[in-house]
Amino acid sequence: MGTHDTRNPCTKLCRYDAADRCIGCFRTRAEVKHWKRLPDETKAAINARIAAGGGTVSRKDGKRARKLDKKIRKLEAKLATLRLRRAELEGPGLKAAD
After folding, report:
1. Which residues of 12-48 are buried (b: 16+ CB within 10 A; e: fewer)?
2. Which is an annotated Pfam family here (predicted)?
């Protein structure tokens, strides 16, 4: 039995950036998908890499980020509706000044 840190670093903020890394725990999509089947040495190496890079996003910060994402989606939907209304008011002959 080793002394490796093999805990799952998931923070429940599962969203991926352009480099295909989770923005919550900084694992790759493949690492997340196969975590349970990875050998302990590999898990420990991944956790060491994450710790060296500054660690994971805390659960509290992750929850706050999810709330902000939800607000952003609502505002984007509202903005799209307002842009449609504006386009209807301007008519087909006028251009929008975005």
Report:
1. ebeeeeeeebbebbbbeeebbeebeeeeeeebbebbe
2. DUF1289
Alpha-carbon span 20 to 79, nearest angstrom: 28
pTM over 0.90: no
CA-based nearest residue to 24, from 65, 68, 52, 84: 65
Residue in the structure block whose two tokens are 């002959």: 93
For residue 78, the surrounding DSSP H or E stretch is helix 59-90
CA-to-CA separations, 49 to 5, 39, 54, 83, in angstroms, rounded? 11, 16, 9, 45
Cα separation, 27 vs 24, whole angstroms: 8
Per the document, the length of the chain is 98
